[in-house]
Amino acid sequence: MRTSSSRSLLDISCAATLERPDRTARIGDWSRTAPQPEPGVLAPPILEAHDLTKTYDLGGKRIDALRGVTLSVGAGEFVALMGPSGSGKSTLLQLLGGLDRPSSGDVVFEGRDISRLSDGQATKLRRERTGFVFQAFNLIPLLDVRENIGLPFTIAGHDANRGELKERVQQAIELVELTGKEKHRPDQLSTGEQQRVAVARALVTRPSVLLADEPTGNLDYTTGGDLLHSLWRSCDHDGQTIVLVTHDARAAAYADRVLVIGDGAIREEIVLGRRIDHSATPLIARLAQIGL
Amino acid sequence: MGIDRLAWRAVLARPLRSLLTIIGIALGVGVLSASLTLSAALDASVGRTVHDIVGRADLRVSAFLDAGLSDSAVQTIRGTQGIATVAPVIQHRTFLASTPGGGATNAVTVLGIEPVSYDTIHDLVIVRGRSLVASDDAGALVSEVLAKEDGYQLGSDLTIQGPGSQGPLKVVGIVEGFGPLGGPGRTVVVPIELARTAFSLTGVTRMDLQLAPSASEAATTAALASRLTEPYVLASPAGIAQSLRASSADFQATAALVAAIVLFVGSFLIVNTLSMTVGERAREVGLLRAAGATRGQVGRFVFTGALVLGLLGSGLGIFTGAILALVMADSVSAATGLTATVPGIDPSGSATAALIGVLITIFAAIEPAVRASRISPVEALRARFDVPAVRRARAWWVGIVFVTVAFLALIAWPPAIAATGSERALAVYGVLLLATLASPFLLQPLARLLGVPVGMVLRIEARLARVSLARDRSRTALTLGSLVVGLAMVVALGWSAQAARASAFAWLNDVVPGDELVSSIRPIAADEGIRPILAEVPGVATVTPIAAFDIAFKGFRLDAAAIVGADVLADGRLTAVAGDRRAALLALDAGGSTIVPTAVATRLGLHVGDVMRLALAGGERLDLTIAAIVDRSIPGPGGEAVLVGWKDATDHLGVSGADSFAVRFQPGAGAAARQALSDTAKTYALEANPIERIQGAVADALARVFSVFDALAIVAVIVAALGIVNTLTMSVVERIRELGLLRAIGMSRRQAMRMVIVEAGVLGSVGVVLGSLAGIAVGAVLLALGRGLGPIAGFPWVPIEFAAALGFILPVAAAIYPSRMAARVSIVDALEFE
């Protein structure tokens, strides 16, 4: 049952009210530890930010990258952070994912404040609960596809070539449609394939939240579209919570909700709802309305 | 901005790498400079020593027999045409009756001189009192060292012990330092007539001769040969200098060889650093090329950087060399027996070393410069994953640099040293070059194999460490190569020391028929009854006398020793390689036979059954038939001794008594027997030395020699460790983004740190394996071609263990900084890193 595409773009005030997709299309046995709201039920927030600020001191010059950002991301939601270069969207993503600490304010992840975690606790969080995809793929050049995807398990001290973990790596490979290329090294793959490896690596641990920073920035139009569709599908089919940073309206149009950031603060919230066609036209029109 | 300025900025941009490279060059240049400075100091010392020995004499005639040169020989020499001045001396070891305070005293050397003629040829520097004035002067001079040790002052009484001693003499003067005979410096100088009377001698020990201005050395030598009928040894200052140089040439050649090895390692560091700079700056170089820079300008960019590093490193190396030379001077003096006085910075050695340092740096820069100039702007700017192949070092270039350094090293040393060690040096260079070139091919399989145990515990760290080592194989190979070379030298020199020690110990055990040697400073005649007294000491089984002396054969001076064949036979000593051992030893006692060591037989082409015709006093000859050739013989001052029986020694060869007694204890005799022997020996002014003590002295002497080489080899390993710091730091810098990613997906700081340390550990382990193998090969070359080190013996377990500890600990220590750097990587910054 997919009804989200038939909804009007702007009459849905909160993504949390979305009707949830049919979850019978899950791949394999990817049981989730994140809360899974039933269709039509208000999704509890999995990720929240309260009055976040981030200030850098660059050679004595104070730069306010974030100026009091407050937001909430529901479980299974696909949220896009949009804004021009230097607006603070990547900084916000890094704080949400525990890669960096805020100057003030809190980040609450699955009901737990992660903004003051020790390095070890933050490492554990990243290892077990979040997944990252970056613009610059960031694959290990001398590891093959299977090894790159299984890297989080290996880092955690597990053997990714045995038992269930081997299965999960294989499922991730299938999810990103790289079957048959398991032994390829990154330089033997196209840019799109490399980014799909990065996505598979981010998803293989079944993170509660997938954080993606300009994942299509280095991809051409078609390849970028394919990747975004893969991300959307993991959200739509598997209830994967995704926070996507992009400056591209076409990419942001895959999201349920778009937060427009400017000058270190959220300037606009645009609710698109879960749609199957991913047309960017309504979003572009709305952005034009607000002068972006 | 000019290209030169850009190069300077590139050097400053990586201060740690530049600093480590400068230190590496400085150590290489320093070791080279120190080696050359010490060589020059030893050469200067040879001149000084020759002057100390013979003064202004043109020739020295020394007595061959214990009795000295007879009166008739002295008169013959005085009457030989062409000789202007003759300074006869008597030299005799004895004891003084007591110290001025009345206590016991150690042995002294008494030098009897003719004051007038002696002063003509020698400089006797009097620091207090007066000199001797005439041959019948009743005074004595003492060296400053003896005066200080025993408490002599001007006016002190001094009594020389001897068969004709005539009561105390007055000390009338103190001679500077060690006195006229050099170290150890316990010397008393008296008028020659007084010495002759005290020791009841008729002849003189030697005569120093000054030639008339019109006389030639050759003509005088020929005249002496035709006129003198008793055996003598003729020496000239040039001959003595040559002999002294020869005695230190092996040491200098080995020191030069090890210094060259440090240079190799240093040159690897330079090539690696410049290659890293080119790799790191490839994008900039691409931009420069895109902006219109010519290939020549790009090449100059690299050369200028190299020149800056070379000049700074060489400048620092001059000071490092001066300090190293000062630190090593004492060890070198102890090892060579020559006093190496280092006068601060030696201009010639320092300049040569610095020039070589700069030349090697510039030479090492050629390939990276050419490579940089060939970087395509498009390729450099498009580089996405990994450095393009063009940015990597070429392993073959290391081979060329290696050969060039070897060539420079060979021509840098003084010709005499180069000639002594060139064959051996070339063989060692060849082995090390082979090991270096093989390293890249063996790295991965060995890393995989040696990484297995680590991987069982630290899976991800071991996997990523191996991946990192494979990232730039040439760079890893260069780093590994320098470690292999350094460790190989540690193993090789350790093995050489071990073999030399084992050889010396085996030698002593094989030839000395006793557990202790009781030695005397004067010959003890058989009728003095000392042998039976020692034999009666409780616990003593046998006592056999040994005398050391010289014989003249076919113009050669040979060391000889008188032994009791039956005693040696009963004790089971000596190993015959030709002839019947038992028959030969018994034939010695019967007279008319000799036993020759292999070394002498080989050198002189002697065989069992040959007759050695020896020159005797009064123009007589003694024929000795070679009854056997033995593997090793009793060591003498100049080599292994030709063995003769006591009958021939006393009847014909001028031997008046035993210098030492070999004492064998009864089985089970313990410390009490040793103590009793020692006490009895002291009663008769004899000194008992257990074989273990002699072995200990041999081991100490060898340790002094090898400590210098070991120190230099360890410098090579330290330079290699600097290269490892550079390589690992570069490896971390190159992987900043990867490290950021790994940290982002859950790698802990500790894991990141361990990853780099494991990388160093794997590199070190591979270095230890390859270094040990290369070290065994180099050691075999050193032992096969080195003189006096002994045959290949045992397996160098201890040197390998030492090299393993060094090869593992140093790389891991070198990894501390890069590993901390890896652990501190900011994820946010790393992911933005370009």
Structure description:
- The complex is a heterodimer of chains A (292) and B (834).
- Chain A has 292 residues and is an alpha/beta fold.
- Chain A contains nine helices and ten strands.
- Chain A has a six-stranded mixed beta sheet. A four-stranded antiparallel beta sheet of chain A has the order 2-1-4-5, with helices on one face.
- Chain B has 28 helices and 20 strands.
- In chain B, the strands form two sheets. In chain B, strands 1, 2, 3, 4, 5, 6, 7, 8, 9 and 10 form a ten-stranded mixed beta sheet that branches. In chain B, strands 11, 12, 13, 14, 15, 16, 17, 18, 19 and 20 form a ten-stranded mixed beta sheet that branches.
- Chain A binds chain B through residues 94, 97, 99-100, 119-120, 123-124, 126-128, 131-132, 134, 136, 138, 140-143, 147, 151-152, 154-157, 159, 186-187, 201-202, 213, and chain B through 385-386, 459-460, 463-464, 467, 470-471, 737-738, 740-749, 751, 827-828, 831.
Give the key terms.
A: alpha/beta, six-stranded mixed β-sheet, four-stranded antiparallel β-sheet, 9 helices, 10 strands, disordered N terminus, B: 834 residues, alpha+beta, ten-stranded mixed β-sheet
Topology, please?
The complex is a heterodimer of chains A (292) and B (834).
Chain A: E1 45-58, E2 61-74, E3 78-82, H1 89-96, E4 104-109, E5 112-113, H2 119-128, E6 130-134, H3 145-149, H4 151-155, H5 163-175, H6 191-203, E7 209-213, H7 221-238, E8 241-246, H8 249-252, E9 257-262, E10 265-271, H9 281-289
Parallel strand pairs in A: 3-8, 3-9, 6-7, 7-8
Antiparallel strand pairs in A: 1-2, 1-4, 4-5, 9-10
Helix pairs in contact in A: 5-6, 6-7
Chain B: H1 3-13, H2 15-54, E1 59-63, H3 71-78, E2 83-94, E3 108-113, H4 115-121, E4 126-129, E5 139-143, H5 144-150, E6 157-158, E7 169-175, E8 187-191, H6 192-198, E9 206-211, H7 217-227, E10 232-235, H8 237-280, H9 282-290, H10 295-336, H11 347-373, H12 377-382, H13 395-412, H14 415-457, H15 459-471, H16 473-511, E11 516-524, H17 530-535, E12 540-553, E13 556-563, H18 565-571, E14 576-578, H19 581-590, E15 593-597, H20 598-604, E16 611-615, E17 621-630, E18 642-645, H21 646-651, E19 658-665, H22 671-683, E20 687-690, H23 691-734, H24 736-744, H25 749-785, H26 797-814, H27 816-823, H28 827-832
Parallel strand pairs in B: 3-8, 5-7, 13-18, 15-17
Antiparallel strand pairs in B: 1-9, 1-10, 2-3, 2-9, 4-7, 5-8, 6-7, 11-19, 11-20, 12-13, 12-19, 14-17, 15-18, 16-17
